[in-house]
Amino acid sequence: MKKILLIIVIFSCFFVKAQNEKIGDSSVTVHAVLNGKTRAIPKKITLYWDVSLSMQNRNIEGELSLLSNYLKSLNYPEVEVVEFSSGHYKAKVFEASKSKTKNLLKYLKQVDYNGATDYSKILKTNIFNAEVVLLFTNGNAVMSSLESKINISIYCVNSLENARHKKLQEIANFSGGYYINLEKKSIDEALTFMLSEKEDLDVYENDKLESNRKGDVSGTIFSISGQIQGATIRTKDNFLEEESDIDGNYIIDAKLGDVLIVDYLGMLQREVIVSNIKQPLNIELQPEGEVLDEVLVSAKVEKEDKLSYYDKKQKTAGYSSYQIDVKSRHQNLVDVLSGVPGLTVSYNGTYPIFNLMRSYYAGDSGGGPSPPNLG
Length: 375
Known about the structure:
Layout: H1 2-23, H2 26-35, E1 37-38, E2 44-50, H3 60-73, E3 78-85, E4 88-94, H4 98-109, E5 132-136, E6 153-158, H5 165-175, E7 178-181, H6 187-195, E8 196-197, E9 217-223, E10 226-227, E11 232-235, E12 241-243, E13 249-252, E14 259-263, E15 270-273, E16 283-284, E17 294-307, E18 312-325, H7 333-337, E19 343-348, E20 351-356
Parallel strand pairs: 2-3, 2-5, 5-6, 6-7, 9-16
Antiparallel strand pairs: 1-8, 3-4, 9-10, 9-13, 11-12, 11-14, 14-15, 17-18, 19-20
Helix pairs in contact: 1-2, 2-6, 3-4, 3-6
């Protein structure tokens, strides 16, 4: 009986050693062999690296350590690296070698972070013919939702607490991959799940984005004429909305990388990315039309005179004018013309219509002339 047990132990050690030589990481291989079926070793990998502002506080050392050990365990496959954020999509291929992998890690460590999260261009095609996809992101969509249209295993990797854990888990599990939450798993544990087929037993509650928001983005809405009261500020793809006060100040529940949309009547809509939550985010709006220094409103009326000599009617033109001084409170043409006596402003949808009230001359029982509609 002792001889049989000794033979089994020797055979097990030999098998583990053989696997170590093949994959290149003894601790990982032991986990893979003992805990589940070893996954096929890919020769090509596409790595999506989120470079939006919401990811600049990622655990870069932890993520790169996981990546380094994973590529080493696969004997350094060819890797396509894709940086992505709003308005930014850049792909670069690193050949299969140990030295190229070191260059890859250095490359990722030096990337610039800018813009909001945008998933519209990733996980849509597989032109590189990758056998595995690594997606390093927190899943917090701003510009577009996270969806996959490719039919290969996806490993979602995240190191931030503020993340859509359930969404990342669903994307990974549906593809046959795994969600690696480095907030909960060590590098060694993460590698075990990436190299062997194991059941995902982690349970995440429904993502509640609002509970993760910081609520400390504030500043002033203003134009060339001064602070703007009543401007609406909202976050893109969200129902949160606030309004600026009498001094143009606002505060809104937003986080790093969010897009704020600011609206005010007579002003061009503006979108601003939250790039710093430690300093006030002051936003300047521009008028929809040109700023006027002076407005002269004129109306032409016709007056009928009867000539006795030829008993003939002759038309003569009369003019009246009113000059308006443009004040600092005037934001647009509607504000300026509202100061004209007898002028009323109504709206047909979003467009203003200007009407002058009918005027009467002294002693004229039939009513004087009616200036035209200026709409």
